[in-house]
Amino acid sequence: MTTTSPLLPQIGAIFVAVSDIERARDWYCRLLGIPADSEIMFGHLYCIPLQSGLTLILDSKIFPKRIIDDAPLFHFNTQDIEASYAFLKESGVEVVVPIQHGHWFNFRDPDGNLIMVSQC
User: Fold this and answer.
1) Is 82 helix (H, G, I), strand (E, B) or coil?
2) What are the φ/ψ torsions at residue 110 (nearest 5 degrees)?
3) What is the pLDDT of residues 53-106, one digit of tens each?
4) Cβ–Cβ contacts within 10 Å for residue 70, how many?
5) Which end of the chain is less enclosed by CB atoms within 10 A, N or C?
6) What residues does 41 pair with on adjacent strands?
7) How far is CA 87 from CA 38, 80, 82, in A?
8) How many CB atoms lie within 10 A of CB 50?
9) What is the 3-state secondary structure of 21-60?
10) Taking all residues of the chain, what is their mean pLDDT, rounded to a whole number?
């Protein structure tokens, strides 16, 4: 039985709790190779539009309420897992799990959030 729902089968944004909005903005933009030239909104939000249509929202206001988890918050796509792994290692990023099965690995951002990179 199909139910009509006002919710769309889409995800519009992913929130990441960060302790320092300026530092997080600079770190994520450097990681993704994009300029950090958008405005920090309301003193605690920075939105990074992604090619998928999603928006990555860095939020320092929710940081004190977050819980560090051992499950990745999300994954970034890559076409070259080896190059991505080398780039993060050379950038001093904490890689938690090395490349697994030739297509994914996990790392932590400066606030301890667990993120995955996956060759899709």
Assistant:
1) helix
2) -60, -20
3) 899 999 999 877 767 778 899 999 999 999 999 999 999 999 999 999 999 999
4) 7
5) N
6) 45
7) 24, 11, 9
8) 15
9) HHHHHHHHHHHHCCCCCCCCECCCEEEEECCCCCEEEEEC
10) 92
